[in-house]
Amino acid sequence: MLFIEFARHCERLEGIAGRLESIDVVSEILPGLSDDDLPIFVRFIMGRVFPDWSPLKLGIGPNLLYEAVAYVVGTRKGAVREKINTLGDAGLAVEDLLATKEQTSFFLQEMDLIEVYRDFERIAIAEGHGSQREKLRIVRKLFANMRPLEGRYLTRLMLEELRIGMGEGNVRDAIAKAFSVEIPLVEHAHQAMNDLGEVARLARQGPEALKSVRIEVFRPVKMMLAQQGTIAEMIADHGEVAIENKYDGSRLQFHKKGDVCRIYSRKLEDVTVGLPDIVHLLRNATGRDVILDGETVAIREGRPMPFQYVIRRFRRKHGVDLMREKIELVPYIFDILYLDGETLIDLPFERRRSILEEVLSDHIAPQYRSSDVDETEGIYRDALLAGHEGIMVKVLSSQYRPGIRGRQWIKVKPGVDTLDLAVVGGEWGEGRRAGFFGSFLLACMDQGQLLTVGKVATGISDEMLASLFALFKDKVIAQKGKEVTFEPEYVFEVGYSEIQTSPNYSSGFALRFPRFVRLRDDKSVDEIETLDLIRERHRRQSGSGGGFEEIA
Ligand code: AMP
């Protein structure tokens, strides 16, 4: 497929408001694609370049992109920024700028999807001395060969937000429809493979190919997630449940084959280098080939330390020995997804737990079972006293559902409700906050689209303000007066007193008294709260006149 055809499909999808119609359109395109084009198209249409499990990251910041565009259209970088500020969208701005140099289009070298993908690979692989120059060279070459419409979508693809409403769910449904296979089969294969591109290729071969998908070692699996809920609800619905401490650390997925071990973070990044002690502990605790799921906790004098201590180690690339003396890290393993070539995610949790107890000699998170609300509340209080965040209540018969935030796992913790939201914009601060971003615009997710729900300025210490500035300054896509737009990459956990309906934000809701709790840099934007959840919280809140969290 030529890139211009891809761009035309995107343009058409951008003009469609309905989910079903978008799915129809994509499902009609997929069967006509070659086996090589199909996975690339599927990822591109979701605004992704590489499979989610892949260590490759495009890593083109807005700066490099604008510099390349400026060069190609023969203007200054500042002029590119100005255009973006006027039009409010980087894609439209690049399209407009490329249109002004159309006379040279005679020299365009037509690019197809695979060529663009190969260039992205070269960019992602470039490392070390001279890599920035190499990246710039490739991005320039790409833009030099783009017609204006192609430029719009290439820009958005590089910023990984296509704005055409094709999230994972829609693409999954389109694949099922295109190749006449059941949606749950596509979903299941996706959970194991973590790449809808490859899944599409298997869907074309038929249901048997999808059924035969297995988890593979060193290909990280999305983590199963939890919803907030109450002990009483869980026990009423399921009778006996499993109860574990909710550790305030960082999620880890441990892969081992023979002697080779790797650890992946919740964002599926390879963090092995920073965690040699964890590798050592877990390697000594099993001789089998495994994929384990757990939490890494920092311990000082027997008590868990706050989450930030762990995150510091996850980011660490050098000086690990020195850090190791200061913070002791301990793994708590609570699940097993793979054993000696077998995929275990479809087994009931109860069964996985007993396998885990057989194959791992140490570092298993303690588990209680109970069907009694009072007893479980006692366990919850003990967990808080021991310094944990709360408890996790899990359904004993549940399968492991990668990437799913379902009601099979419930988190119970005290305090106000919080939401994990993407930071999509900000405002330059004033007074003491001059020279920094003083407030941040937040968004939730709705079918692949980011919708705003409010701004947060409270609860950010001066020190945090400075580190947030360092983090966000290279993520500015556009600026208008005091307001800036960020490339959506970071997630904030935000507290609030109430959710209100509001015409001021695109979600239709606003947070009352939003308060910054922490930067969730273990979470990626596709893990943020959905509009459905916000709507649900709003509904419950108006129904019961308050939060629905358990209070200690
Ligand atoms: P949250 O990040 O608030 O959505 O809570 C879910 C997170 O709690 C998981 O991603 C884990 O990192 C963490 N967690 C801590 N203890 C457990 C546990 N026993 N089981 C599952 N997740 C846990």
From TrEMBL:
<dbReference type="GO" id="GO:0051301">
    <property type="term" value="P:cell division"/>
</dbReference>
<keyword id="KW-0233">DNA recombination</keyword>
<keyword id="KW-0234">DNA repair</keyword>
<dbReference type="InterPro" id="IPR012309">
    <property type="entry name" value="DNA_ligase_ATP-dep_C"/>
</dbReference>
<keyword id="KW-0132">Cell division</keyword>
<dbReference type="InterPro" id="IPR000977">
    <property type="entry name" value="DNA_ligase_ATP-dep"/>
</dbReference>
<dbReference type="GO" id="GO:0006273">
    <property type="term" value="P:lagging strand elongation"/>
</dbReference>
<dbReference type="Pfam" id="PF01068">
    <property type="entry name" value="DNA_ligase_A_M"/>
</dbReference>
<keyword id="KW-0436">Ligase</keyword>
<dbReference type="InterPro" id="IPR036599">
    <property type="entry name" value="DNA_ligase_N_sf"/>
</dbReference>
<dbReference type="GO" id="GO:0003910">
    <property type="term" value="F:DNA ligase (ATP) activity"/>
</dbReference>
<keyword id="KW-0460">Magnesium</keyword>
<keyword id="KW-0235">DNA replication</keyword>
<dbReference type="InterPro" id="IPR012340">
    <property type="entry name" value="NA-bd_OB-fold"/>
</dbReference>
<dbReference type="Pfam" id="PF04675">
    <property type="entry name" value="DNA_ligase_A_N"/>
</dbReference>
<dbReference type="GO" id="GO:0006310">
    <property type="term" value="P:DNA recombination"/>
</dbReference>
<dbReference type="GO" id="GO:0005524">
    <property type="term" value="F:ATP binding"/>
</dbReference>
<dbReference type="GO" id="GO:0006281">
    <property type="term" value="P:DNA repair"/>
</dbReference>
<keyword id="KW-0067">ATP-binding</keyword>
<keyword id="KW-0227">DNA damage</keyword>
<keyword id="KW-0547">Nucleotide-binding</keyword>
<dbReference type="InterPro" id="IPR012310">
    <property type="entry name" value="DNA_ligase_ATP-dep_cent"/>
</dbReference>
<dbReference type="InterPro" id="IPR012308">
    <property type="entry name" value="DNA_ligase_ATP-dep_N"/>
</dbReference>
<dbReference type="Pfam" id="PF04679">
    <property type="entry name" value="DNA_ligase_A_C"/>
</dbReference>
<feature type="domain" description="ATP-dependent DNA ligase family profile">
    <location>
        <begin position="322"/>
        <end position="446"/>
    </location>
</feature>
<keyword id="KW-0479">Metal-binding</keyword>
<protein>
    <submittedName>
        <fullName>Atp-dependent dna ligase</fullName>
        <ecNumber>6.5.1.1</ecNumber>
    </submittedName>
</protein>
<dbReference type="GO" id="GO:0071897">
    <property type="term" value="P:DNA biosynthetic process"/>
</dbReference>
<keyword id="KW-0131">Cell cycle</keyword>
<dbReference type="InterPro" id="IPR022865">
    <property type="entry name" value="DNA_ligae_ATP-dep_bac/arc"/>
</dbReference>
<dbReference type="InterPro" id="IPR050191">
    <property type="entry name" value="ATP-dep_DNA_ligase"/>
</dbReference>
<dbReference type="GO" id="GO:0046872">
    <property type="term" value="F:metal ion binding"/>
</dbReference>
<dbReference type="GO" id="GO:0003677">
    <property type="term" value="F:DNA binding"/>
</dbReference>
